[in-house]
Automatic annotation (TrEMBL):
It comes from the Eukaryota. SUPFAM superfamilies: RCC1/BLIP-II. This is Regulator of chromosome condensation isoform X1. PROSITE patterns: RCC1_1, RCC1_2, RCC1_3. InterPro entries: Ran_GTPase-activating, RCC1-like_dom, RCC1/BLIP-II, Reg_chr_condens. Keywords: Guanine-nucleotide releasing factor, Repeat. It comes from Nicrophorus vespilloides. Pfam families: WD40_RLD (PF25390). Residues 40-419 form the RCC1-like domain. RCC repeats lie at residues 38-88, 89-141, 142-193, 194-263, 265-316, 317-369, 370-423.
Amino acid sequence: MSTKRRRPSATEEIGVKKAKRIKFTLDSVLLPSITENGVVLVTGAGDFGQLGLGPDILEKCRPALIKLDHEIVDICAGGMHTVCLTKDGKVITFGCNDEGALGRSTADKEEAEFIPDMVVLPSKVVQISAGDSHTAALLDDGRVFAWGTFRDSHGNMGLTLSGNEKLPYEILPGQHVMKIASGADHIVFLTKQGDVYTCGCAEQGQLGRTSIRTSSRNARNGFGKGQLEKLLLPGLISLKASLRLHFDNIWGGTYATFAKVANKDDIYVFGLNNYYQIGLPNTVPQYLPKLSKDFSKYKWEMICSAQHHTIGLTKDGKVYAIGRKEYGRLGLGEDCEEAQELIKIPFFADKKVVTIGCGSATSFAVTDDGKLYGWGMGTVGQIGTGDEEDCVEPTLIKSKQMGERKVFRVTSGGQHTAILAMTSDNNNTKGDKEKNES
């Protein structure tokens, strides 16, 4: 019997070679700086211990000092927990541990969730990230460990096919990761080869590698456990091979992801866009990576994206906002409209901003003189102004325990905010030993 002949493809017929991706290696990535260390202050709700002030203090409306025996270089606020990175590369956690977000056992000690304590990891940590119920840590050797769980509209997804991971679990073995980012229920990884991997919930398109039909773990063609495996195991985002794209930065939003093309200003986005918060001219979820012409106009230092709004910090220290206006989260004033395109926040026109942060419906910016400004929803004191009123414009945040300290990092979660600040002598500032004021 004669051998069956294969029909040549269209490209073969016309002599066109298939596009190949050029080999690419990232030498360095812009990570949050860990050269400065300071003390941690917190404000907002602390019902589950996320303020780290002990079981007797469940709410603060101004920033209050946490007593820690370590020099802290970075902080991340999750949904109901807080993560700190120490100068020597250790991770400290406190807050809700119902689903393992603290990465340590709290069952053998009463009220252990309210007390900051160490997570055991195999090497020095250089970056941390946190979502609603998970935490991730990037080690100095390029490995990533994560713990906790992801959730979707059907409830608990687990972090792996085994379910919740209460202790650190290596999540992307075999890849040298340069940077990580967390959304509410997904993690983004940027590898040394300039590739972007994602895992977790895909329902809003935030993984960038599913269709609307395959975004749910109960997808009809997903066959149950096999579909869940596709979501929980990190996979490459879906890109046209002909684009030959590599990336050199990533940012995670609550329900979205942003990825910067290497050596260009191009920003690819995917995820929830119901208020234009990822910079696309429609309000449908974007399930596959798409170039945002609006975000690609600027040179970004940092992008922070929450539920329905996004703020961005440019290389020249200016802050832009886009998305939903309710509660003042855009910082554009009482009478502003929904921002369908990026708008520069006028308040910072004569100031240079060095870092930003945002929570569910809050926004923050730190200027080069170490001053902290906040705006948005103030329901439980998460802005730190001293009351529970919303702020429609950037408002200077003060407290007795902040004193003259200069702020250099801010992060906000579901209903609480954590601040990293320093002075010339972090351990000898008058008032540190006084009782936290209301």
